[in-house]
Amino acid sequence: MKIRYALSALALSVVATFPAMAENDSSLQKIITAAKHEAPITVYASTGKIVKQAKAFSKKYGLKAVGVKAKAPQILEIVSREAQAHNIKTDVAFLSDAPAGIEQLLSKGYVESWLPNDMTGKIPKQYQDPLTVVMAPNVWAYNTAQYDTCPITNIWQLTEPKWHGKIAMQDPLGKPSYTDWFNQMATHYDQAIAQAYQQEFGHPLKTDESSATAAFVKALAENVPLLTHSDSDAAQAIGAPDVKDSFVGLISTAKFRKNKDGMKLGLCHGLKPFIGWNYPSLGLIAKGTHSPNTAKLFIHYMLTEEGIKPQAVDGKMSTNNTFSLPSNEASGIEKYRSEIMSYHTSTADSDWQSRQDWQDLWSLSYQQ
């Protein structure tokens, strides 16, 4: 497999060169005052929680914001078409496909990234431009009714015969975030993947693949995971109380809230080299919005503990590092935050360019 790691100098600078919207005189109070004279805004996101968040924002500030849930590809299409038609109806978008957002929206000038002045010291620089608002953890999980602790301690164990056909996850061919995960591992964490192999098997990895990550992805696919069409289906295969087969799998932390309804999902903390990975959602403001101050205020609101709380209870982590997840978050991921693989938006262009390569490797290796 030949992954296209080489990026041009221009591509390397894509993320770094998006100009944040100017805010020289835009203190929060000035933004609030100006927003009072603007039209209502429409906000898109891939989570249904955006409806609740928009209502709470409207109540807090005496403004009008309407939240709309849509999948990332739909949001991309809507924002692109409105920009091309010069008919802006979507004011703010929270996009859970960072590579596509950078490639198809930011680089074309359809949207802008804006970082509030009072957030510059609270959000790590790697998440500032373009602005990442929230990170969604995808983690390895097991059934607590079948095991006292997670039955795997190293991701390479998932490539062994014991787990043949016993791994549940969404199909990478229909889930771009998974191929982005592969590419992020290869680009930034390949040494950790190789070290995990040596820790598990007692000798260095020898492979004809282009990276330790590629060798892992190939071996994982060859072990024929149960591929699902949704996160909920994967969670059901892993954590159903009456499940007869022993599955481990990869799911979002949001699915752990089903434990209150009888599911038996447990977090595989301590797994080497990572217990999962964080996937970013960008906060974007449409160029040409008729309500720029209201749009900015909504971005600011979503960067606060109050604003992000409806998503935080599902384990989604704000990039504002001044507060933690709420105590009623179901997975317990807050205690193991340091064990999650971080996403590097700086190489999102490489993720975008390499998606087909990783899909090809997966499809060629996955043979039932």
Structure description:
The chain has 368 residues and is of the alpha/beta class. It has 2 domains: 9-135 and 280-331, D-Maltodextrin-Binding Protein, domain 2; 136-277 and 356-365, D-Maltodextrin-Binding Protein, domain 2. 35% of the residues lie in helices and 16% in strands. The chain is built from 12 helices and 12 strands. The protein has helices at residues 9-12, 28-35, 49-61, 72-85, 98-106, 176-188, 190-201, 212-222, 231-239, 292-302, 305-312, 348-365, and strands spanning 41-45, 65-69, 92-95, 111-112, 132-143, 167-170, 226-228, 248-252, 265-267, 276-286, 317-318, 340-341. Strands 1, 2, 3, 4, 5, 6, 7, 8, 9, 10, 11 and 12 form a 12-stranded mixed β-sheet that branches. α6 runs antiparallel to α8. 48% of the residues are buried. Mean pLDDT is 94; it is low at 2-25. This is ABC transporter substrate-binding protein. Residues 1-22 form the signal peptide.
The average pLDDT score comes to: 94
Radius of gyration: 21 Å
Low-confidence stretches: 2-25
Distance between the termini: 21 Å
Largest sheet, described in full?
12 strands, mixed
Strand content: 15-25%
Structural class assignment: alpha/beta
Classified by CATH, the class of the largest domain is Alpha Beta
CATH H-level superfamily title of the largest domain: Periplasmic binding protein-like II
| CATH architecture label of the largest domain | 3-Layer(aba) Sandwich
Please count the helical segments. 12
- Globally, the shape reads globular
Total beta-strand segments: 12
CATH topology of the largest domain: the name is D-Maltodextrin-Binding Protein, domain 2
| Proportion in helices | 25-40%
Total domains: 2
Summarize the helix and strand pattern as letters: HHEHEHEHEEEHHHEHEEEHHEEH
